[in-house]
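User: Second chain of the day. Same drill as before.
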Amino acid sequence: MQSKGEPKRPSKLTEPMPATEDEIREKYLERAIREINSLSRDVQGCSHCPRGNLMPVLGSGHPQADIMLVKFTPTVSEIEEGVAFYGRSGNAMRKSLSRLNIDPLAVYGTLFVKCPVGDPALADPACLARVAEEVAIIQPRIIVVMGEPALTALNELELPLAKLVDWKPGEIQPLTDACDVLVTPNIDDSLDAEDSKREFWGAFRSLGGWWGDLPPY
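Assistant: Same format as last time:
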């Protein structure tokens, strides 16, 4: 019984039920989508790089991907479409992921130089640093870094608690306690010659073993 004059205690029927795991995951996903959309608007409105009337090339994929693909500069087809990993490189990546039995919905792809500039050296450092924001939003478990310029840019980001990554194609290296790195040749430079294709695939297929060892929970 409740004594007269005591404040009423809330009924158990009106108390909020604890959130389920699915609801929690949904909330995190909604937040990641909002943050990626906000970052995309910032990139589109950025005026640091001399890109003229051309639009920047935005990242594409799942905003909470386990795997993040990173190149340094866009190709012509990516510039025309405004989306990273569009065209030949995108087709090659889809075939590679399929061969490794990796769910494409677990992947996000982006670029360091998001603005279509004639010389990558003209890209503003603030443009390259956007990748750090993408890493913070997506929180991937592994980053596939394609090409030595992209690796240099990754090391220069100085992500919190990050280790320096060496140019060792095909070797899984730790970046932080929560994220690994796989270094590969640049996919865009690997599509026209059989030897280059084999070199890229020889490094990239290490991702299949990493994916297979990933706990399913």
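The chain has one domain: 23-212.

User: Great, on to the next one.
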